[in-house]
Amino acid sequence: MLWNFKSRDSKREATEGDNELSMIPVWSIVLAVLVFASVQYLFHGVLPHHRHEMLPMRLLMGYSWGTAFASYVLLVGYVSRDVKRRKMSASLWMLIVIVMPGGIGAIVYFLLRQPILSRCPHCSTEVASSYHFCPQCQFQMAPVCGRCFRGTLITDVYCTQCGHDLAEDQAPARLRAYSD
Ligand SMILES: [Zn+2]
Ligand SMILES: [Zn+2]
User: Fold this and answer.
1) Domain extents for the chain?
2) Cβ distance 36 to 69 under 8 Å?
3) Reduced to 3 states, what is the DSSP secondary structure of residue 175?
4) How many Å lie between the centroid of ligand 2 and the Cα of residue 169?
5) DSSP for residue 23
6) For 95-133, how does the pLDDT look when each residue is reduced to its tens digit (9 = 90+)?
7) What's the gap in Å between 161 CA and the centre of ligand 1?
């Protein structure tokens, strides 16, 4: 019974993995709330109050700085999970994203990150999601035109690039599953 629940949970996690928002771990959400709260405390409790400074201004500054820092914490949390999904070095990238100032590390990360890897259902070679065929066993991962070999949509009847009649290709049945 317990085992059953567990396997169902892990299955749900696997499908939710596609949702980008679920890529943000709980610890970074909690930390983001804490950071936001402590920035409010810093602005309203610790920093010296000047008499000429108006309260709306102080609220606005506290809110915007708090949001900026909290978003950054969420971003770091996202990277910490995304980096594993892409089989990149987690510790190296976490260091880069945290150490480089003003979010530059995060920008570098999003420019350089590797495509998400999955496994070929036929031979379990690691393949990038952009591949149309498995590099090791020629297993067809995505629908392609049989004449020009560009990617096509499962619902296309003719190739959008060369006009080829896709029905002639006799694509594997599992790729045609949703076309009718
Ligand atoms: Zn394969
Ligand atoms: Zn074509």
Assistant:
1) 2-114, 116-180
2) yes
3) helix
4) 11
5) G
6) 888 888 777 888 888 888 887 888 898 998 888 888 888
7) 27
